[in-house]
Each structure stands twice: as structure tokens, then as C-alpha cells.
Amino acid sequence: xxxxxxxxxxxxxxxxxxxxxxxxxxxxxxxxxxxxxxxxxxxxxxxxxxxxxxxxxxxxxxxxxxxxxxxxxxxxxxxxxxxxxxxxxxxxxxxxxxxxxxxxxxxxxxxxxx
Length: 114
Description:
It is built from 2 helices and 5 strands, in the order H-E-E-E-E-H-E.
């Protein structure tokens, strides 16, 4: 049985990024997280152990903003992937980190054939 414990829960930006990254990888149509080469502007798929590089987390007065840079599967409906990804990340952050006010911004950096 769960008991309420008084106090505040503080979650670091790295933990939020990890949670968001794992939620993103579970979404249909998402191949993985991406990073963009600043000189050439080319998106590169990140390995699963470097998810944080493709995720930006910031906060403004209790409002958390998560920027996800993803590579999606070619041929998927991007609007559906973005909607599913946004709701999955919000749900996981609410359930695990108890964050209520989360804005998720999805940046599709590229497409890859499966």
C-alpha cells in the first residue's frame, strides 16, 4: 500500500532526458535519437547509450520543456508519430517523475528506411 511522504521531489534534467529518451524509443516509427553536425548540418543517429545528446531539457518557473530530436522510419505518418511520442513522454514523466506541466517539442531530423 502506498503512503504519502511529505516533502518535495527534485528530478535532474539528465534523469528527465533519460526517461524521455527511453519513452521515445518505445514509440512506433521512431528509429532513434539524433544529433546534428553543426558544420555540415547532417543528422546522425545516436546509439542507445547516448540518448541524452538528442534531448534538450529546460525549465521556466516549474514548466518543463523537452526538445526531442529524432529520426523516424520512412513511410510513417509523421503527425501520428509526433502525437504518440508527445503523449508517451508526458505520460512517463508524469508517472515516474511526477511532472505535471511538461511541454514536449519534437524535431524530426531525418528519415531512415527500415
